[in-house]
Amino acid sequence: MTIPRTLFDPAGCGLPSEADIASLASAWFPEFLKPLDSGGGKLSPDAASGIYAPQVLSKDPAGKPGYPEGQGPFPGPRYGSLSADASGGRYVGARSLAAIRGDFPILAEKVHGHDLVWLDNAATTQRPKAVIQRLTCFYERENSNVHRGAHELAARATDALEAARNKVARFIGAPSPDNIVFVRGTTEGINLTAQAFVKPFLKPGDEIILTMLEHHANIVPWQIIAEETGARIRVAPIDPSGQIILSEYEKLFNRHTRFVALTQVSNALGTITPAADMVRIAHAQGLRVLIDGAQAVSHLPVNVAALDADWYVFSGHKIFGPTGIGVLYGKREVLEAARPYQGGGNMIADVTFERTLYQGPPAKFEAGTGNIADAVGLGAALDYVDAIGMEHIAAWEQELVAYGMKALAGVAGLRLVGTASHKAGVLSFVLDRCHNEDVGRFLNTKGIAVRAGHHCAQPVLRFFGLEGTVRPSLAFYNTFEEIDKLVQALQELTDRRK
Ligand code: PLP
């Protein structure tokens, strides 16, 4: 029996609403509305063999929108959650921090006999069970190549992929899913923009403006095209706190400026840049701007329309989704103006040996078989954070950052690096007479995971006269108690070295 596409995905945009499911389910599958063994009156995808039907949605105890049981943002069973006491009985929005931690199986790991304290979130975030289960579900029930096969699984996989694209568009405030190109990650998104959009119009003497805060991923691709075309890079400076000096940035613009690329949040310092103002300044000169959102999306509510970004890029693994999948948002006109980045299947309308006609965006930039399952997993990650609420996540993290900065400042011989008043997620520091790597190794013996090194941001660290820092970095599942453990371990280390 074939499920009608409309029931599988009635709105064409991801999980259907509860009302849609109830009405469609009673129209098409009245027999499934009988109570199952739990008496819940739900549809089960296993209720009849071969039928893939969405379930009637369950309500999360936090009163958030429902999801099919075992597949929603908060599926059970919970793993090793902190007790309410250990998480301080705190809530992030309507969900307790203890329950949130229980959503992330890996947070129950022991490392060297200690509870894992994951403070390496700027490198990669951990995945909630909702994402892990969504990937399993995809491979167990939907796996197929997309957009081609005239069979049921091709329809399911295509629906799941396009639902994920819709979720991304909604999550970042894009006007349409057609603005969303799936890429491998931030790095690929920036390279795509550089090669496909900027390089074709660069000529010798042209200038690209970056900032001192950039990750290497937002420096090297521009250097490559600058070398190839004779263009050059200009760099917006920062003040000693690690914030962009807006008046100096403004002075960089001249008749040679062709493009601007800037980070919204610095991965090495955590500085939140005045990205919207910087875009406005560039637009006043008629220039297009790319925003690197890799470190922003999991910490701040992001709205590309409010930012007026021409291009916006981020990686799935920085926002509780899978690795190997990322998003490049582009305004319609820039996506149309850009040439294809790679050629191959999926991105063509018609091919002869004489010429090829391309699809419109986003297909034009998605040559070959993409990372379908992980795009679907990313959609589940966005559902998860959406259900908690980015505004609640941002508020809790601001408390964590303030607490962490204050607590670390009390450690003798510790110098905080990056003290902008507007910052998110990152607590970089160096410790007197200690190599960063030694600090990282010592913390590891206590089960505390931090990054030590240059964080792929050498220019900004050298601005501070450093080759590296120790970088604890936060996510909304972190607690004050974990910060206390970090500070205690650092105090023990400094005491030992007296
Ligand atoms: N930009 C920033 C600000 C980052 O923090 C990172 C990764 O840490 C990247 C770009 C590159 O991301 P990815 O390695 O996922 O492509």
Would you summarize the structure shown here?
The chain has 498 residues and is of the alpha/beta class.
Task: Explain how this protein is built.
- This protein has 16 helices and 19 strands.
- The protein is of the alpha/beta class and 498 residues long.
- Helix 13 (390-409) runs parallel beside helix 16 (480-496).
- The longest helix has 21 residues, at 152-172.
- The protein starts with a helix and ends with a helix.
- It binds pyridoxal-5'-phosphate.
- Note the main sheet: 7 strands, mixed
What compounds are bound to the protein?
pyridoxal-5'-phosphate
Q: Work out the helicity level.
A: 25-40%
- Beta fraction: 5-15%
Unreliable residue runs: 1-70, 76-85
Computed CA radius of gyration, to the nearest angstrom: 24 Å
State the shape: globular
Average residue pLDDT: 87
Alpha-beta classification:
alpha/beta
Count of alpha/pi helices: 16
The number of E-state strands comes to 19
Please report the distance between the alpha carbons of the first and last residues.
Answer: 74 Å
The side-by-side strand order for the widest beta sheet comes to 6-12-11-10-9-7-8
